[in-house]
Every structure is written in structure tokens, then in C-alpha cells.
Amino acid sequence: QELDDIAFGLSKMRVLGQRMQTATMSSVFEVQFEKQRQVQGMKWKMKFALKAIYFLNLVGFLVGMIIVSSRQMKGVYYVESVTLQFQDMVWDESYPVMRKQGRIFDAKIPLVYAYFNGVYDKIGDKSEGRPMYVERNKVDGSMYNSEGPEIPEGWPVLSEDFVIPPSGIKYCDGHWIFYNENIRKSKNSRHEDADCPWLARSEEYDGFDLLEVGRNWELWTGAIGETTVSVVDNECDENSDCNLNGECVEGKCECDEVDGVTYLGTHCEVKMTDNCKTIHNEVDGAAWTVESPSGFLVEYSRPMYVYVDGTGTDADQNYIQANPSDGFALIYSGLRWQALQLPLFNLEEGRKFWQWQGNNFHAYWWQAYAESIAAISDPTKNDSPVGTDFYWVTDRGEQFGPFGSLEPMQLNKQAGRGVFKCELADDD
Q1: Burial class, 28, CB count within 10 angstroms (exposed 0-12 / middle 13-18 / buried 19+)
Q2: 305: which of 75, 219, 273, 288 fits an S-S bond (Cβ 3.0–4.6 Å)?
Q3: 405 - beta bridge partners?
Q4: Using CA atoms, how far apart are residues 158 and 118, in angstroms rounded to an integer?
């Protein structure tokens, strides 16, 4: 810059010649600009308009954020209903708090986690800012009845003994947990975490959406184990969410009943054909049908089958001929089928009791009456009992497994053969 100044000064003194002196001495501008007042006014209006636009954008953004935050706090964006699916994990010694004849007592019964498979709905309460979900019944996903059934005369039980304490899902201490306040992990209550009484818990997760949680969960089987857990949104957006076996109407699947096939389940994933509405025991010839005195019932998304009186023989040494007043039912329990004996099922005096039980059945809490469980199947996700191996429960006690002493029901005790078969179609 100093060299420029020196050269400029020398040029004005004509040291560098006439042309350089002329160039440095000439005026650059010869026109004087007048102040444009109107343009300045337009600039002020433009600035004001821009500021107003920025302000309105800011107000709109803040209002939108407030609305979204308010709706989020109210749980509008949380999933409303989910289906929880455990794998075949068993804890031999759970400690539930149960009722018998009105008295509360501590029991010790196996906990088959699949017994808790099914629908869980969002409720109004929250845990650590996240929604809480409560278990619904295994028939249609509605609430369990908080009042017990009508008890037949002479039975040594009370109505409240049968009321189901539903399980739940909530966020606690960095995990989503599955819990039941009436089931303890230890006999010693001082070892229990009263604030976070988990039976199963997800990986650590600080988000708010239950559906975004990983499938790998820890669960309690006397010690901490691992399993995979499925949590699926029950709301549908299109017919493909109903497995193309039903129509998505207002977020719920309405399952088809066409061409001799009835579809069941939250997402119409279970198929029941007309020729499998009655099935037959291959060993003793006994018939079982979905047409019970209480009507057609669904448990854990599978049809309930009842024994047809007078069918079957004593070809099987473990064959149990029910009392004419009693009934037998094949009921799905999340991953296994169970054969249950139902006293007074065929009589009017027991009808109301079993109708209530049908709508409020829960395989875990039913174990308080384990003597009524006559048989149990292998784990299966089949739509019906057909093709699944079954076992008679011949004895119970500490020396046996969680289901008791088991004897195969299959013909010649052949593994993989299954016990039941559907009726043959007319053209077979």
C-alpha cells in the first residue's frame, strides 16, 4: 500500500510523465446523485414486511411445536394396542399371590411365559413419561371381568378366587419391562425390587416408542436368562396388515369367513377350515368339536374344542371317560394346547360358571386347579391341534418337570405323528 501511495504522488508531480499525471488528476465522477426519498420508504416497508413474515413463521413454528408436544404428552402418538409374544420359556418355580376361599396365600407354580401372550392395551397411567399397557382377555382383547363368576352350589370356592390380576408392560429404570404385581421372583420379599418388579425386560432403551425396542429381552427363570420377544402393533393401515385374509376397517382387521374357511386372530393370521371344526383322536376315536354348549369360543386366537359325549373307546389305557355332567375341552394357551376337565359343564347349574371362565380364561392362573389339566401338547403355532404331539399328565410332584409326568398319546407312542386328524372332505 505504501508503494502505491509513493507511485501516485510521483505521478501527480509529473515525474512519471504527462499521461500518468493526467490520469491521477482527472475527476472520476462528474454527476451528483440526489437522495431518493421514495426508494428509502420502499426499503423501510420491505424491511417491515420481512420482519413480519419472520415473526409469523416463528409464531407458527412455536404453535405447531406446542400442539405436537401437548398431543405427545397426552399419548396421541403412542401405539394404542400391541400383541406380545413370548417364546417357549419356562420358570419352574414362580411365586404368585393367589386367593382360595377368600384367603390370600402364597403358591408355587410353573410360569410358562407364553401363557401371557396376547393383547395389551394402553391405559391412562404413565411411568417415567412413557405409556403403560395392561393385559386383556384371550377371547376378544377386551378387559378381564373384575367380578368373579356365579359359583355352582356346593363348590368349596368363592367368586373372587377366579378374578384375574392382569399383567402389564411399562418403562422402568431404562428398560421396558413385563411385570405382574401378583407374581414374585423370590419367596423372600426383601429381595424384590418394589419399584421395578420385572419378570422380563428389554435391552436398555431411552426412547418412548415400545415398537422400537429390540427383540432381545432378559427374563427371569430362577436366574437371568435371555429370549426373543415380539411386540406388534394391533392397528392396521391396509388390507395387507390383515394378511390379505380380512379387511382393514378404521384401524382394525375384520377377518373373512369365505369358501369354508374362517380366519381368526388380531391380524387374521389363524385359519380354521370347515372340515377341521370337528377333529378325531386317532387312538380312541373320540370326537372334538368347536360347537360347544357355550357357543363358539376363541382362546389365544385359536378355537376351543369340546369333547363330544359318547364318542371314543378305552383303547388308550389313559383314556378318561368324562362324567356325563362334566366336559372336556382342548384350549390353546399361547404355545401349547391343553386338555381340561370341566365339572358340570353339561349342566345348566354349571353353564354360567363356564361361560364366565370361557371369557376370562388365563392359562397361568388356571394352574391353581392343575388337577383338571389332563393332557398337554408340544409347543406349536399350528392353527389347530392337528399334527401336534400330546401327552397325558399321569402324575405330579417335585420330582417331575413343570407339566408333570408325561406319557405320549400318539398311536404306538410314535413321536411326530400327532394325535388328532380333521374330518375328511366329501371328495376324499
Answers
A1: exposed
A2: 288
A3: 395
A4: 27
Asked whether 405 and 373 are in contact (CB, 8 A), the reply is no
Classify residue 153 as exposed, middle or buried by CB count within 10 Å of its CB (0-12, 13-18, 19+): exposed
**What confidence tens digit (pLDDT) does each residue in 88-104 have?**
999 988 888 887 776 77
Asked whether residue 295 carries a pLDDT value surpassing 60, the answer given is yes
Q: In whole angstroms, what separates CA 47 from the centre of its chain?
A: 56
Among residues 234, 221, 286, the alpha carbon closest in space to that of 265 is found at 234
Alpha-carbon distances, residue 239 vs 80, 242, 243, 342 (angstroms): 19, 5, 7, 39
Question: Which of 325, 384, 364 minimizes the C-alpha distance to 112?
Answer: 364
pLDDT of residue 356: 92
Cell of 132: 403403560
204-207's contacts with Cβ under 8 Å and 24+ in sequence apart are: 204/174, 204/175, 205/174, 205/175, 205/176, 206/174
Question: CA separation (Å) from 366 to 62, 126, 361, 413?
Answer: 54, 30, 7, 28
Give the max Cα distance, the chain: 136
Q: Which three cell numbers stand for residue 168?
A: 402389564
User: Would you give the DSSP letter of residue 53?
Assistant: H
pTM of the model: 0.81
Nearest-angstrom CA–CA distance, 21 and 15: 8
- Overall residue count recorded for the chain in this entry: 428
For 412, how many CA atoms within 13 A lie in the half-sphere containing its CB? 3
pLDDT at 86: 96
Q: What is the DSSP letter of 387?
A: T
What percentage of the chain carries pLDDT values higher than 70? Answer: 84
Residues 261-272 pLDDT 10s = 999 999 999 999
In what helix (H) or strand (E) does residue 199 lie, and over which residues does it extend? strand 198-202
Range of lowest pLDDT (47-61, 108-122, 289-303, 386-400): 47-61
Question: Could you tell me the three cell numbers for 135?
Answer: 393385559
Q: What's the rounded Cα separation, in Å, for the pair 126 and 170?
A: 8
**What DSSP designation does 323 have?**
-
Query: Can you tell me the distance from the alpha carbon of 110 to that of 96, in angstroms, rounded to the nearest whole number?
Result: 10
Please, which residues bridge with residue 104 across strands?
A: 99
On average, the pLDDT of the chain sits at 85
- Give the phi and the psi of residue 216 in degrees, each rounded to 5: -85, 115
Q: Categorize the per-residue pLDDT at 423 as very low, low, confident or very high, splitting at 50, 70 and 90.
A: confident
